[in-house]
Design a protein that fits this description.
The chain has 576 residues and is α+β, with helices and mostly antiparallel strands. The chain contains 18 helices and 27 strands. Strand 23, helix 15 and strand 24 form a beta-alpha-beta unit. Helix 1 packs across helix 14, helix 2 packs across helix 6 and helix 8 packs antiparallel against helix 11. The chain is elongated and about 80 Å long. The two termini are 18 Å apart. Homodimer.
């Protein structure tokens, strides 16, 4: 491929709405282009990465015995009414109408359609097990699409669905996928962890998430360095009551919280529609001085879980809390959580509001300010007062670092991750609801045992960048790089030798099956190198007159500090 034919469009500056490295760099490298909130065009350079991700996923899915199909993106509502999800799913499900006023949905996943296929096509136990997968566009009307491809509204997912005759066989299908996923994520060349996740289904433990380790990840994952134990935070917390406490937590438990200090009480006072979603509540004392600097007043933190609309939270009755609670001190909070409660900026509501969905924590100080992490992100820095840097109190949990692990083999550590894959034993949830049966060996109809298995195809490149970049740009792992090698001739328009050598090297590498791009744009060396460092092509070969006279080319890996002189014939060995 020649650069002059290809579409290369790099930017010096990232757009203002890009907050994390992967979003900034994918925009600057011309990999994606925003069309609307959470809706992106995959530009040629970005699409090459996506295709490589898909390629690896397809190879391993096929190897594991799954068969590919493609289900419609737009699906009739009837099937979704059968499963109950048309009514049950919230606003994430995009519902549309056709000219005949018929309801449709844009698929966020495809359990209904694939179950419909199974009940028609898989009639006998002899056809089982079967695993059908697709690599297909999904739409989820995410409340806060953000971080570019990381949390888009339109995105590509590989979703697979297994059908088995009984639970034992379904567990085997699940294990086969668990193995395939390990092979897939090993091949991407990223640091990841497979962590236990809550399955929600009757299947109990059969759900794992594949988390790429990254400080910017939206999920917290808990693991024990001394053992195999690894779980996402929700799963870890579900187990926490029976787990022995770590030292920090013991200190916190000494803080008396008299009377009404239950989550339910606070929920009632705040008129928060919580049901079972309040996780825990921590109250602290601190003071603000006349200028609003934090000296001491009440600071309180709420940890709620689940999806809440911030505007639903009312704080009118908050003063009533004083009576019911004994406030912990900030020092106590700090000792317990190892982090200071932060003062976060206003979120543009009339009243100070705090909420937390999942890991996000809201903080309010003397009714002056309050925003959860999302509020902070959506409003940017908008501090009504001269308050200190926002410390995001994002990790206040029932499970903390240093707790004994559930297997008793060591202390827990916590790190952040990006969920790039999720496998799930579904049981008969969909097959029962949709009466999807096959004839078993005894001639009787039986409902399918199902599993589902997702990979965020377009989230993966973003996760890869979070883990692999520097101040100059992206550093792609070879397996998913848009091009493996870029050939950079210097003075190609002036030197026939350089031109010929560049062309020859390009052709040789291409013939050897290496993904090579020849930069024939005639850019000056500085601009040319800056582009490729930004785009993150892992291997670069520079061809110059001076080098050619010595029979040498200059090879540099994207991670190398300097170039190495290599005899022209030996380049292929470096880039394989
Ligand atoms: P999240 O917790 O990040 O919202 P999820 O648990 O809702 O993800 P699943 O339903 O498990 O997602 O979907 C399978 C995979 O699809 C996820 O593991 C993730 O990699 C990817 N995915 C989900 N939502 C998005 C999105 N909005 N943008 C990009 N990829 C996504
Ligand atoms: Mg989600
Ligand atoms: Mg998730
Ligand atoms: Mg998931």
């Amino acid at each position: 491929m020649r650069a002059s034919q290809f579409l290369i469009s790099t930017l010096k500056e990232a757009p203002a709405d890009a907050e994390v490295a992967s979003h900034k760099l994918m925009m600057r490298a011309g990999m994606i282009k925003k069309l609307g909130a959470g809706i992106y065009t995959y530009m040629p350079m970005g699409l090459r990465v996506i295709r490589k991700v898909e390629g690896i996923v397809r190879e391993e899915m096929n190897r594991a015995g799954a068969v590919e199909c493609a289900m419609p993106v737009i699906q009739p509502a009837e099937l979704w009414q059968e499963s109950g999800r048309f009514e049950k799913m919230g606003p994430e499900l995009l519902r549309i109408r056709d000219r005949h006023e018929r309801d449709f949905v844009v698929q966020p996943t495809s359990e209904e359609v694939v179950t419909d296929i199974a009940r028609q096509e898989l009639r006998s136990y002899k056809q089982l097990p079967k695993n059908l997968y697709q690599v297909q566009t999904k739409f989820r009307d995410e409340r806060r699409p953000r971080f570019g491809l990381m949390r888009g509204r339109e995105f590509i997912m590989k979703d697979a669905y297994s059908f088995d005759r009984d639970q034992d066989s379904a567990k085997k299908s699940y294990e086969t996928m668990a193995q395939a996923y390990r092979r897939i994520f090993d091949r991407f060349g990223l640091r990841y962890r497979a962590v236990a996740a809550d399955s929600g289904a009757i299947g109990g433990d059969l759900s794992e998430e594949f988390q790429v380790i990254a400080a910017t990840g939206e999920d917290a994952i808990v693991y024990c360095p001394q053992s195999e134990y690894a779980a996402n935070m929700e799963k870890a917390e579900a187990l926490a009551p029976s787990a022995p406490r770590g030292p920090a937590k013991q200190a916190m438990q000494k803080v008396p919280t008299p009377g009404k200090s239950t989550c339910e009480d606070v929920a009632a006072l705040l008129e928060v529609p919580l049901a079972s979603t309040v996780k825990s509540i921590v109250l602290a004392t601190d003071k603000l001085d006349a200028q609003g600097a934090p000296v001491s007043t009440q600071v309180w933190l709420l940890l709620l879980r689940g999806d809440h609309d911030m505007n639903e939270i009312k704080v009118g009755k908050v003063p009533g809390l004083d009576a019911g609670f004994r406030f912990a001190t900030v020092a106590e909070i700090e000792a317990h959580f190892g982090t200071r409660p932060g003062y976060l900026g206003p979120i543009g509501l009339k009243q100070p509001v705090q909420i937390v969905a999942d890991r996000e924590v809201a903080v309010m100080a003397d009714w002056i300010c309050g925003a959860n992490e999302e509020g902070f992100h959506t409003t940017g820095v908008n501090w009504g007062r001269d308050l200190p840097e926002p410390a995001l109190v994002a990790d206040i949990r029932n499970v903390v670092e240093g707790d004994l692990s559930p297997d008793g083999k060591g202390r827990l550590a916590i790190e952040r991750g990006i969920e790039v894959g999720h496998i799930f034993y579904l049981g008969t949830k969909y097959s029962k609801a949709m009466e999807a049966t096959f004839l078993d060996e005894d001639g009787k109809p039986k409902v399918f045992e199902m599993g589902c298995y997702g990979i965020g195809i377009t989230r993966l490149p973003a996760a890869a960048i979070e883990q692999n970049h520097d101040e100059r740009g992206i550093i792609w792992p070879d397996a998913i790089a848009p091009f493996t090698v870029v050939v950079c001739p210097i003075g190609m328009d002036r030197s026939a030798d350089v031109k010929a050598a560049a062309q020859q090297l390009h052709d040789e590498l291409a013939a050897a099956g290496i993904d090579v791009l020849l930069d024939d744009r005639g850019e000056r060396p500085g601009a040319m190198f800056a582009d490729w460092e930004l785009i993150g092509v892992p291997h670069r070969v520079v061809i110059s007159d001076r080098g050619l006279k010595e029979g040498q080319l200059e090879y540099q890996h994207r991670r190398d500090a300097a170039a190495t002189k290599v005899p022209a014939g030996e380049i292929a060995g470096f880039v394989k």
